[in-house]
Amino acid sequence: MEGKGTETKEKDCLCEDRPFLERTFEKALWASRLLVLIAVIPSLCASFALFIIGTNKIFKVFVKTMENFMDYDANYYKYAIGNIITAVDIYLIATVMIIFSLGLYELYVSKLEPAEVSDNVKILNIKSLEDLKTKLAKVVLMVLIVTFFKYAQRVAYSTPMDLLVFGGAILTIALTVYFTGKHAK
């Protein structure tokens, strides 16, 4: 107990030994890290907006499904699958925004105590800028995979070479996911 009080007094004494202008400048410099909130708050708002947009897309598919219950044509399947894949893509981008917001906050402003004690959500436990970049890269990779499949659904495969190229693209994605997972361990 005595050691803690002594350390605090020593720190206060060290601060008093420096010129006022230097102490004031360093306090202002340290407080400038709060500028990160300019990015954190809008990023969370963007995430919220994207979740609403994605949910709206799925809700529209659901409503159209109920309106035409059991009376679907080939165009309906393309419509439904396209919109659902787009919604998943939007959800993943919203997730990127959440990870970005929470990561910036934890790195520059303060640790999130609920994240520290939570056993459920370890992806949001960010310790360094490299850790934040790695987590964002994984989600961005998933966005790219979903986007690839969204566009691959629209392509007409007319020759064996088309199917071979498509298979090669899927193999490349599978290898990327495999090596990304292996790198994380």
Any key phrases for this structure?
185 residues; mainly alpha; 0% strand; elongated; disordered N terminus; membrane; transmembrane helix; UPF0114
Textual characterization of the structure:
By secondary structure, the chain is mostly helical. It has a domain at 34-154. It is built from seven helices and no strands. The longest helix has 35 residues, at 74-108. The relative contact order is 0.08. The chain crosses the membrane at residues 34-59, 79-105, 164-181. It holds the Pfam family UPF0114. InterPro entries: UPF0114. Keywords: Membrane, Transmembrane, Transmembrane helix.
What is the gist of this entry?
The protein has 185 residues and is mainly alpha-helical. The chain contains seven helices and no strands. The protein has helices at residues 2-17, 20-31, 37-67, 74-108, 113-117, 129-152, 160-184.
Topology:
Layout: H1 2-17, H2 20-31, H3 37-67, H4 74-108, H5 113-117, H6 129-152, H7 160-184
| Radius of gyration over C-alpha positions, nearest whole angstrom | 25 Å
Backbone structural class: mainly alpha
Helix count equals 7
Fraction in beta strands: under 5%
Question: What is the first-to-last residue Cα distance?
Answer: 41 Å
Largest sheet: none
Low-confidence stretches: 1-10
Strands, count: 0
Taken from the alpha-carbon principal axes, the silhouette is elongated
Q: Roughly how much helix do the residues carry, as a percent range?
A: over 70%
Written as H for each helix and E for each strand, in order along the chain, the element string is HHHHHHH
Q: Calculate the mean pLDDT score and round it.
A: 82
